[in-house]
Each structure stands twice: as C-alpha cells, then as structure tokens.
Amino acid sequence: MLIDSNAYIGHWPFRYRRFNACETLLNERMDPFGVELSIISNLNGIFYKNTQKANEELYNEINSRNAFRDRFIPFAVINPIYNGWEDDFKTCRDQYKMKGIRLYPKYHGYNLDNPACIELVKMARDNGLPVSLCLRMVDSRTSSWNDIEEEWALSDVMPLIREVPDAKYMIVNVANNTSLDEEETALLKQADVVMDTSGRGLNNIVGLLETYGEEKFVFGTHSPILDYCTGLLRIQSLRPDEADQKAKEKMLSGNIRRYLNL
C-alpha cells in the first residue's frame, strides 16, 4: 500500500498546476500510481488573508463525493496571527474532522518563536494533531518575483521542536541542508517527527536512515508542485543492504498509518 503524506489541491498563483483538484489528483495521479490515501491541504490557504476560507473549500470538495471522503485525509492551514485562529482550529477539528494542521510562517509573516505560534502548536499537541512544516514550497531560483525567496534548512525548525518537544511534527519537502549539530540531532531522534521523501534533501536518504532510523520517514510527493515519482523512487531504489522490504513498506505506508492511527 502507498500513502502520500504531502499533497495539495488548490491554485498556485504564480504558475499553472495540473492535478490540483480532488478529482484529477485521484483519477490521474493516485489511482495510476497505486496510492490508496493522500494527506491534502489547500494551496489557497497559503495566500488567502483568511486561511479558514481555504479550509472550508477543502472540506466542501472532499465531501462532495464519497470517493473523496474515503481517499483523502485533510489537514487545515492555520495562521496563528490572524484574529479568530482559535475558532478556526476548533472548527477544523470538530466540524471538518481535519487530522492535522499546516503552518506557513514565511508566507503569513511570523516567526516560529511567535507566542501565538507556540500556543497553536501546544493546542495541536493537546488534541493529538500533528503539525506539518514545509521547508520549501517552490524553488526560489525559478519562482515569480512576487513570491518569497526565503527557504528553510532542517535546522531552522528545530527551535520550535525544542520549545514544544512533545508535539507531533511532520517535516515535508526537505529541500535544503539537513545537517544538525549533536544536540539538535539528539532532539530530532527523540521527538515524534516524520519527514516525507519529496524534497531533494532526501537524496541522501541512506545517510539519514542510518542517523534517524526508518521510522522517521514517510512517502510524499509534494503534488502538484513537484512530480509524482521522485518521492516514491527514493524509497523503491534503496538496495537491500540499505533498506529491506519490511523497512520500505514502513516508509511507503506503515509509518504514516501508525503516526496518524489510521
């Protein structure tokens, strides 16, 4: 079984994207590639001033067909410096039944040490919801001049994990430097963290597996921004001495199934 831990619907304002609706993602990406479930958020939430409208759109689209409800796992985009975010969180948790939250500090204009951000992460922790952090949305070298240029390395999210070490974290599109110092490496090993395989930083997945173990990695595509194959090939191409079939199956679906209690 394959479970994609990092996908989206919605529009990217600076570039046309295909497969960015539930129907096309399901029929033209997931089914042809044998993906059973996908965790999805709404790209529109990165750019809407009121991110809750994007969560509402996602909820309505998923609930427009039974097939969508069976195959998609929604994560809410929450902006903790927008008034009423606490109510947005509760609505997404209780009414929309969303299974996690995604944060975009670079786009929404706050730092990870912002007290409201820390409060949101603690709220997610107390409700058993993972917090997803995306290290890169698009390559800044080829993006629109209207888009942001800042990107994260793995070390940039460690202060939040240090501040709330008992929360659950998903780190997706690990596209840049994965080097951590000794203290940060120990913290990441101990934390309830998974990283998806979509980002180019996972080109060194063998070394990362040796450091952190197979339980820390999950299949992800970052669709429709990135292609649908690379995140899968990073796992499937591992040699038997690098990861046996049992380890591959954990990364392809077992780890995220355990992580989300599916």
Explain the overall architecture.
The chain has 262 residues and is an alpha/beta fold. The protein has one domain (2-260): TIM Barrel. It is built from twelve helices and nine strands. It has helices at 22-33, 44-47, 52-62, 66-71, 85-95, 105-108, 115-126, 158-163, 182-190, 205-212, 230-236, 245-260; strands at residues 2-9, 35-42, 72-74, 76-77, 101-103, 131-134, 168-172, 192-196, 217-218. A six-stranded parallel β-sheet has the order 4-5-6-7-8-9, sandwiched between helices. It has a three-stranded parallel β-sheet with strand order 1-2-3. The mean pLDDT is 95.
Please estimate the helix content: 40-55%
First-last Cα distance = 13 Å
The tally of helices reads: 12
Number of domains: 1
Please write the string of helix (H) and strand (E) elements. EHEHHHEEHEHHEHEHEHEHH
Q: What oligomerization state is this entry in?
A: single chain
The largest sheet is: 6 strands, parallel
% residues in beta strands: 15-25%
* Main β-sheet, spatial strand arrangement: 4-5-6-7-8-9
Mean pLDDT: 95
Counted beta strands: 9
CATH class: Alpha Beta
CATH superfamily: Metal-dependent hydrolases
Give the CATH architecture.
Answer: Alpha-Beta Barrel
Low-confidence stretches: none
Shape: globular
User: According to CATH, what is the topology?
Assistant: TIM Barrel
GO molecular function: hydrolase activity
Domain Amidohydrolase-related: 49-261
Pfam families: Amidohydro_2
InterPro entries: Amidohydro-rel (IPR006680), Metal_Hydrolase (IPR032466)
